[in-house]
Write a structure and sequence with these properties.
Length: about 350
C-alpha cells in the first residue's frame, strides 16, 4: 500500500470515528396525555415526576453505553409499566368486564422490524413480549391467548391477572359504567378514559431510531377492543428518519394512521418534525373529533411533543444530556413548534 493510501485510510477512519461519536443520544418518553390539574395531588404529582425521571435514566444509561435505541426504548417503558400510576402494565385500566387487557408495540427504525402484542392478560411487561415477537418470530403482531402461549414457549413467566389491579383504576371503571348506564356522554369522554399510556422514542449513538408504546387501552372498553398503540403506523412507528409514539383517543389515531402520517411528512416531504407532528396531532385528529398527543424524534435529534389536552406526562434528554420532565401544558414549551417567521415586507 503506498503512502497516499495509508494516509487516506487514516483520514477516513478518523472521519468515521468522529461522525459516529458525533451522534449524541436522545431519549423522549411519555406517560399519557390528558392530565387535568385538579386530578393530581401533590403526592401523586411527585410520584409521576420521579417515575418519569427514573424511566429517562434507565433508557439513557443504555444509550450512553452505546446500546441500541430499541434497548433504550424497552428499558424506559419497563419502568413505567411497573409503576402503578400509569395505564400500562401494573395500574392498567379495566375493561367493561373488569379485566385488564394490555397492548404494546416496538419498532426498530433502522431495519423497520416491528413486534406487537394485543389483548394480553398475564404478561407483566407487554413491551418485552412485543420485542420478543420482533426478535424471535416471523410475525409482527400476536394477540390474546396465542401471544401468551408464545410467551410460555420462550420461558417468559406469566403473572396472575390480579397483579395489574389498582383500586384507583377499579373506581374509574365503576364511574365509567355509571355514566354509560345513564347515557351521559361527555365531549371529553375519550380523554377521561385514556390517561396514562406510556411510550418512548430514542436515537442511539449509531444514529438509529426506535419507538415503543404500551397501554391498557381505554377504561370500560368492550368486545376485545384494540387501540392504536400496538398497531404499527397508528400509535407506534419508526424508520431511519423518524420515530413516533402516540397517546390519545386511539380510534382517531388509527383512522389517521397518525404515527406513520407524521413520519411520512418527515421522510418524504422533508417537513421539520415539529411541524409534521403538530399538523397531525393538533389539526387532523381534532378535526375528526379526537384528542391526545405524541412524542416524535428525528435522526438529527430534533424533538416534538405536541398535545391538544390540558397536559401530557412527558420527559426528554436531548443532545445536551440534560433531563427534563413536564406535566402541564404551560410548563415547558422548549419542544413546541417555533412560531412561523414573520412574512418579509418588501
Ligand atoms: N391510545 C390508547 C388507546 O386508545 C390510549 C391512550 O393513549 O391513552 O388504547
Amino acid at each position: 500500500m503506498n503512502l497516499h493510501r495509508v494516509l487516506l485510510a487514516v483520514v477516513l477512519s478518523g472521519i468515521v470515528a468522529v461522525s459516529e461519536a458525533a451522534v449524541p443520544p436522545v431519549l423522549v418518553i411519555h406517560g399519557g396525555a390528558g392530565v387535568i390539574k385538579r386530578d393530581l395531588t401533590p403526592t401523586k404529582e411527585k410520584a409521576i415526576r420521579a417515575a418519569l425521571t427514573q424511566a429517562l435514566e434507565a433508557g439513557y444509561a443504555r444509550l450512553k453505553a452505546g446500546k441500541s435505541a430499541v434497548g433504550a426504548v424497552s428499558a424506559a417503558i419497563v419502568v413505567l409499566e411497573d409503576d402503578p400510576n400509569f395505564n400500562a402494565g401494573k395500574g392498567a385500566v379495566f375493561t367493561h368486564d373488569g379485566k385488564n387487557e394490555l397492548d404494546a408495540a416496538i419498532m426498530d427504525g433502522e431495519r423497520r422490524r416491528a413486534g406487537a402484542v394485543a389483548g394480553v392478560q398475564h404478561i407483566k411487561n407487554p413491551i418485552l413480549l412485543a420485542r420478543a415477537v420482533m426478535d424471535k418470530t416471523p410475525y409482527v403482531m400476536l394477540a390474546g391467548s396465542g401471544a401468551e402461549d408464545f410467551a410460555r414457549s420462550i420461558g417468559m413467566p406469566l403473572v396472575d391477572a390480579a397483579y395489574f389491579r389498582t383500586d384507583a383504576r377499579w373506581q374509574q371503571l365503576q364511574k365509567a359504567r355509571k355514566e354509560d348506564a345513564s347515557g351521559k356522554l361527555h365531549a371529553d369522554e375519550g380523554t377521561a378514559k385514556h390517561f396514562g399510556t406510556v411510550g418512548a422514542v430514542a436515537l442511539d449513538v449509531h444514529g438509529h431510531l426506535a419507538a415503543g408504546t404500551s397501554t391498557g387501552g381505554m377504561t370500560d372498553k368492550r368486545w376485545g377492543r384494540i387501540g392504536d398503540s400496538p398497531i404499527i403506523g397508528a400509535g407506534t412507528y419508526a424508520n431511519s428518519d423518524c420515530a413516533v409514539s402516540a397517546t390519545g383517543w386511539g380510534e382517531f389515531y388509527i383512522r389517521t394512521v397518525a404515527a406513520h402520517a407524521i413520519c411520512m411528512r418527515v421522510s418524504q416531504m422533508r417537513i421539520p418534525i415539529q411541524r409534521a407532528a403538530a399538523v397531525v396531532v393538533n389539526q387532523e385528529i381534532p378535526a375528526l373529533g379526537g384528542n391526545g398527543g405524541a412524542i416524535a424524534l428525528d435522526a438529527h435529534g430534533n424533538i416534538a411533543i405536541p398535545f391538544n389536552t390540558d397536559g401530557m406526562y412527558r420527559g426528554w434528554i436531548d443532545a445536551s444530556g440534560v433531563p427534563h420532565v413536564a406535566i402541564y401544558g404551560d410548563e415547558d414549551d422548549s419542544t413546541a413548534e417555533p412560531p412561523a417567521p414573520a412574512a418579509s415586507v418588501h
